[in-house]
Amino acid sequence: MRSLASLYTVSAHLEERQGERGADEGTRRERGLARLAELGELVGGVADELGITWLESDIDYDGGKLYLVAGAPVTGGDDEERMLVALRRIVSAEVEPALSAGVAGGHVFAGEIGSESRRTYAVMGDTVNLAARLAARAERGAILATEHVLERSRRRFELHGQPFLMKGKERPVTGYSVGAPLETRERDHDAIPLVDRRDELELFRAAVDDARRRRTRMIELVGEAGIGKSRLVEELKVECAGFQQLVARGEQYASATAYGAWRDLLRPLAGITADADATSAGAHLQAWVTAVMPDLAPWLPLLAIPFGAEVTPTPEAEQLAAAFRRRRLNETVDGFLTRLLLMPTLLVIEDAHWLDEASADLLRHVAASRMPRPWLVCVTRRDEQESFAPEDAVELRVPPLPDADATALALLAAGEAPLSEREVVLVRDRSGGNPLFLRELVAARTSGSLGELPDTVESVITSRIDRLEPVDRLLLRCASVIGPVFDLDLLAEVLAGELAERGDAARVHRLSDFLVPDEGERLRFGHDLFRAVAYEGLSFARRRHLHGLVGLALERRYGESAAAVLSLHFFEAGDVARAWRYAVLAGDRAREQYANLDAAELYGRALAAAEELDEARPEEVARVAEALGDVCDLAARYEDASTAYRTARLILADDVVAQARLLSKDGMLSERAGAYDSALESQVFALALLDDNGFDEPALRAELALHRAGVHYRQGSFEDCRSWCTRAVEHAERASARATLAHAYYLLDIASTRLGRPESRYRELALPIYEELGDLVGQARVLNNLGIDAYFEGRWDDAVGFYKRGGEAFERAGDVVGAATIGNNQAEILSDQGRLEDAGRILAEVQRVFRAAGYPVGIAICTSNRGRLAARAGRFDEAHELLEEAARSLEEIGAAEQALETRARIAECLVFEGRHREAFAAATDAEERAPEGLLPLRALLARLRGCAEVQDRAPERGGVHLKASLDLARSAHAEFEVALTLLALADSGLEEGTHVEARAILSRLGVVATPRIPMP
Ligand SMILES: Nc1ncnc2c1ncn2[C@@H]1O[C@H](COP(=O)(O)OP(=O)(O)O)[C@@H](O)[C@H]1O
Ligand SMILES: [Mg+2]
Predict the structure, then answer these.
(1) What is the helix (H) or strand (E) element at residue 492, kind and residue range?
(2) In this predicted structure, what is the pLDDT of residue 116?
């Protein structure tokens, strides 16, 4: 199957049922052919004229089916109206009333299917089936259409007879019999043409052209409520005629529902209906992905999350380390969209300031992609949120209308009701050029006396709502509690006890000043300020009451699947028991979906509810507080995490073990923030708690010891690190804590190496445990260290092999930063080998990843490597700049070893320049600060001092240092250092023939060039 894209279309079926019994075969055939020709001409002509696609026919002796679509392969706009008009013409042109028709609109799959040799353009989906079913139900000579199609048609039609309900797969469908066309309906938007915005439109056109040429473009429209962002989006949609158009919205109420916005956008793309439950959505998605993009199948469990679908786990997705799932999820969705949206596509994300965090993150990812795609992404947002746009995107601040245009808009909005010149000026000035404000002022003026001109757009809207009939006002306000979009049924249900007649809810159709039709049976507030103002108009007690009713109605309908929204309504209703229950449920669910910040919001709500709830069990409240800490930690909100852990500790004041565990977690937070002293303090305190109270808890002790060892390692206290590792090993063995054990072994290994006493057995112990646990990140780290050791020991081929395996393991675990760390090490080898350009390319990419991840140590280490590379290439100014910057930040972070190494590289650069006095001082200074161990670094420093002395024409003293360097390098098996020192000895004339051995080593290491050191 080839690509099928999802499109919005209007589909129609024409059915003919003649049933000519009795006539002989020959006559039937003849009549049949004649009629076919007639029908063909009629339908073909009308379809041509109105731009409708005649897709297929299915002809039989005594009848047949014709199949028409509008909106595919391209939309000509007003698809509903054109289709209905066409069908009216076809049906009424018939002398005998023999044709019947059915019309439905919605998403279908359209595209080419079949093989290279036989390919057809096909349109399929529920909409198509619904049209066929309506055609089958229609009387002869009649057209049955869904309400959805009629609502969207600008032209109204006479409607005959009673609408009827037809059972549907998901929900019953109402069919209307369509009669003669009537007048064109004036739509709110169409009523007033766009004023001003010439610059914006010009920019749109350029962007649309770019998108057509597969240059992904992004436009971000930024500005206050009512300034005209959505209106500009409407214009953009018109500019994008022929584009597939997908729209998602941020919604205030949905802001803690992870991926809420994307779900609506994604589901139709895979043919999943909005109301399908998670299991059936999962089954559908699974089948779809297997058939259409099987290469994404391994990541299906991640892809399913924003679809709100549940699928069976896959090993690949299981193996991903938790911290990296979000990124892989983003990549998978991006891949899905890239593969599916091959034709020009407009992606609109409206009101992005209200996106839930997971949706926002996904949007940022999609926007930042550099893939060439025929997409135009348009985001609208208020100024209160960070930009979604990558650097090269257009951020368009929508300005107020200039005076002349504001005047024009005021006059247009007033229409028949005249405004005096003075009033126009007043209205224009008061609105400050905000079109919504301006229109509201005019509407207030024309629907009664304005009296004093209100100061804010909110107050105009308030006075307009206040003047509504009481029932209408109640409807509007109640709807505002449900949310920006609402179901009529739901509104009726909520108001059942409030209104005399249930049917009164249908009156909302009259509120078209404030409400506009949305998908299906739903309505939406025409502007969010209408909703906000209607909501503000409710008293606190009334709001509480209504939230409770809405919550209960939603609970009856959707149950736990709507937990996030339920928690909000019940919280606002003061029903803290339910608020607590649903917020915990939704929080746990968001956490499973790696939507950490959304989970944090929900857990926060749960805790707030728990404060007023007597029956919440303290252990459960503490669990939620700890979970809040954990998700904040993962989202790098360290302060919030720390506060949450403190809350948990207060609740669990009597539970010593929990205190120790929480303290230890708090210590980890300090370590991550680089506060090593307070990190140590927490671990010491936690351990003391266990000791003083006589708790054994070997697993926790192992963790504590390990964390402590980790802090010592970061501080460069390798002996302390080793001794705490040994303790961690003991406890972990007693507790059979395999993961902790492997980690301790691994830390022991690297600490020993740093001390110059490599103990490879630890490494060999760690790797199999990680393999047994399926811990890819652990394996990758060990492999990386095997690579580093091989590198220092001059087995560069081995090193390259280990790095390769380690990099692959990191990739599989989704750890891009880990993979970049290995890339950094690979670049180091290339740099040593003199393959400077290759190294430079890799380092640039590594730097990008580290920066994107906000990983300061990584950035500094990479900067140091780039500095060394610049020095080797003779770009000394750049080298000093980079190296100084790296040394400073490494010192600030407290990464002692790397800082020292960078200082040594500064000395090395000075030697390359022949600035021997400064070089000698720098190398000596570094040497004095070097802790025990670090033999390769010491060898480097001794060599630099030697070279500096030789440059200073003191060859004897130089020789002493060079020989010392040689000894150190040989004892550390640092072959590269050995070779460089041998070269220095030969070049300075101190030794003869040493360059022979040097050359042999260098060629074995694959070195193609070494930097020149000027000698007298
Ligand atoms: N340039 C314009 N010309 C005519 N009407 C406009 C213009 N800009 C906005 N409007 C109208 O003003 C109202 C508010 O605009 P809208 O686009 O909804 O604002 P936003 O999305 O920025 O909150 C809408 O009724 C819209 O049709
Ligand atoms: Mg808007």
Answers:
(1) helix 488-495
(2) 66
Query: How many whole angstroms from its chain centre is CA 409?
Result: 38
Query: Residue of the nearest CA to atom 9 in ligand 1?
Result: 228
Ligand 1 atom closest to the CA of 232, numbered from 1: 17
- For ligand 2, the distance from its centroid to the CA atom of residue 231, given in whole angstroms, is 7
Q: Tell me the residues surrounding ligand 2 (ion) with CB < 5 Å.
A: 229-230
> Distance, CA 459 to ligand 2 centroid (Å)?
19
Ligand number nearest CA of 225 is: 1
Ligand 2 centroid–CA 265 distance in Å is 18
* Atom of ligand 1 at shortest range from CA of 197: 1
Ligand 1 centroid to residue 399 C-alpha, Å: 12
Among 189, 230, 237, 460, residue to substitute to test ligand 1 (most atoms within 8 Å of Cβ): 230
For residues 643 and 617, the answer to whether their CB atoms sit within 8 Å is no
Alpha helices in 652-697 (DSSP H): 656-672, 676-692
What's the confidence (pLDDT) of residue 637? 80
Helix residue ranges, H only, 510-617? 528-536, 540-558, 563-573, 576-592, 596-611
Among protein residues, the one whose CA lies closest to atom 15 of ligand 1: 228
Q: In the structure encoding, which two tokens stand for residue 660, read together?
A: 């120790």
Q: What is the DSSP string of 288-323?
A: HHHHH-GGGGGGHHHHHHHHT------HHHHHS-GG
Residues constituting the chain: 1016
Dihedral over Cα of 556, 559, 561, 562: its sign: positive
- Ligand 1 binding pocket, CB closer than 6 Å: 189, 192, 194-197, 223, 225-231, 409, 435-436, 439, 527
Residues 6+ apart with CB under 8 A from 525: 479, 480, 484, 485, 514, 515, 516, 531, 534
Closest approach atom of ligand 1 to CA 234: 17
CB within 8 A of 904, min separation 6: which ones? 923, 926, 937, 940, 941, 944
Both tokens of 893, joined, read 């972070």
Q: Which of 405, 436, 531 to mutate to test the pocket of ligand 1 (most atoms within 8 A of CB)?
A: 436
- What SS3 class is residue 100? strand
Q: Which atom of ligand 1 is nearest to the CA of 439?
A: 12
Q: How high is the pLDDT of residue 6?
A: 46
CA atoms within a 13 Å half-sphere pointing along the CA-CB vector of 336: 27
Å from CA of 689 to ligand 2 middle: 56
Mean pLDDT by 10 residues, the chain (1016 residues): 49 63 69 78 84 80 78 72 85 71 80 71 78 83 83 76 63 76 56 84 92 90 93 92 88 76 90 88 93 91 94 88 82 92 92 90 88 92 82 84 91 78 85 90 69 79 85 89 88 79 61 81 87 92 94 93 94 96 95 86 96 90 96 83 94 93 91 84 93 93 94 89 96 94 92 81 88 88 88 86 91 81 94 94 90 83 97 96 96 88 97 96 94 87 96 94 95 90 91 90 94 90
At 58, the amino acid letter reads: D
Copy the structure tokens of residue 817.
Answer: 């930063």
Cα-flanking dihedrals φ and ψ of residue 72, to 5°?
-140, 145
- Using N-to-C axis directions, what is the helix angle for 776-792 and 760-773, rounded to 10°? 160
Residue 162 confidence (pLDDT): 65
Give the predicted TM-score (pTM) of the model.
0.67
Distance 434 CA to ligand 1 centre (A): 8
> In the prediction, which pLDDT does 12 show?
67
Predicted local distance difference test score (pLDDT) of residue 976: 92
How many Å lie between the centroid of ligand 2 and the Cα of residue 527?
A: 6
Q: Whose CA is nearest to atom 5 of ligand 1?
A: 194
Neighbours of 1002 (CB within 10 A): 23
Give the atom of ligand 1 at the shortest distance from the alpha carbon of 227: 22
Residue 451, by phi and psi: left (phi above 0), alpha (psi -120 to 50) or beta?
left
